Amino acid sequence: MKAQNPNQRRDFILKTSAWIATGFFSQPFSLFAQQTKKEYTVEEIMDKFIAGVPNAPFEKTVDTLKSGSKDQVVTGIMTTMFATITVIQKAIELNANFIIVHEPTFYNHLDETEWLENDPVYKFKADLLEKHGIAVWRNHDYVHSLTIDGVQAGVVNELGWNDYYQENAVLHLPKTSLKNLINEIKDKMGVPSIRYVGDLDQIVSKILLLPGAIGGRRQIELLMQEKPDVIIVGESPEWETPEYVRNANEMGEKLSLVVIGHSASEEGGSAFMAEWISKNIPEVAVTHFPSGNSLHVF
């Protein structure tokens, strides 16, 4: 299998305007559609999404504004995994003053910035957002808490596995080898390499799909509960799930682990968010711009 172009994933998602509605998406993917009469503030858009989340709003959540004001009128929306400087510059170019991200903006889970106040990298990014009046909202806890996890649904759609997905993390795919499954993931997600534990010739069908990083203990608990052929994760500490799966193989179990990488494993959730906006707030221009992976393979 030849190495993938690192821009393939971005090109793939940006060209998916022809996606056919399946299960979770009731409209074709829309790239920055023209805004019409209705105006929305940042707060109104946040509240509209949160209203559809069971038991929301949450008393404790990381899903807060990282820049900008809830009262500002939205000129356009960009969805992405990370508010990188490249993403911010693209938003400026498209006159989108509201960026909805899935992960932290300032390098730590709670987006605490006191320790960064004198750092030039932090200041450059914060000043850029302030100068152009861009609001950044992290939508992590809420999108994961939808009746059907929005990130998981977006990833399933990206992989083309909608026919095998219902509401949980288990999918029953047509039988294939682990090698073929890995190649399919690499092709569809545009990732150049994938780490794995297991036998490439193992025949797999029952998949446990856990995008992102829910923690090794939770991954292993779900392995114990569901007993899949293969678990697919975004990332896991090497001393946790990878070691568990290695030990399972050493004792003769047929179990594999596929590690996609955190960014690649959840970018489909940001595409899901763009679809949600396109469907529920069609008056506001929206585009999904993948932030890509900060780590490269040499």
Instruction: Give the overall form.
Output: globular
Number of strands: 10
CATH fold category name of the largest domain? Udp-n-acetylmuramoylalanyl-d-glutamate--2,6- Diaminopimelate Ligase, Chain: A, domain 1
Order of helices and strands, N to C? HHEEHEHEHHEHEEHEHEHE
Distance between the termini: 16 Å
Quick one: biggest sheet?
Answer: 5 strands, mixed
Assembly level: single chain
Name of the top-level CATH class of the largest domain? Alpha Beta
How much strand content do the residues show?
Answer: 5-15%
Total domain units? 2
User: DSSP helix count?
Assistant: 10
- Low-confidence residue ranges: 1-35
CATH superfamily of the largest domain: NIF3 (NGG1p interacting factor 3)-like
CATH architecture label name of the largest domain? 3-Layer(aba) Sandwich
Determine the fraction of residues in helical runs and give it as a percent range: 25-40%
Structural class: alpha/beta
Please explain how this structure is put together.
35% of the residues lie in helices and 15% in strands. It has 298 residues and is of the alpha/beta class. The longest helix has 19 residues, at 262-280. The protein has a five-stranded mixed β-sheet with strand order 1-4-3-2-10. Strands 5-7-8-9-6 form a five-stranded mixed β-sheet. The protein folds into two domains: 8-147 and 265-288, NIF3 (NGG1p interacting factor 3)-like (Udp-n-acetylmuramoylalanyl-d-glutamate--2,6- Diaminopimelate Ligase, Chain: A, domain 1), CATH 3.40.1390; 150-262, Udp-n-acetylmuramoylalanyl-d-glutamate--2,6- Diaminopimelate Ligase, Chain: A, domain 1 (3-Layer(aba) Sandwich). α6 packs across α10. The two termini are 16 Å apart. β3 (98-101), α4 and β4 form a beta-alpha-beta unit.
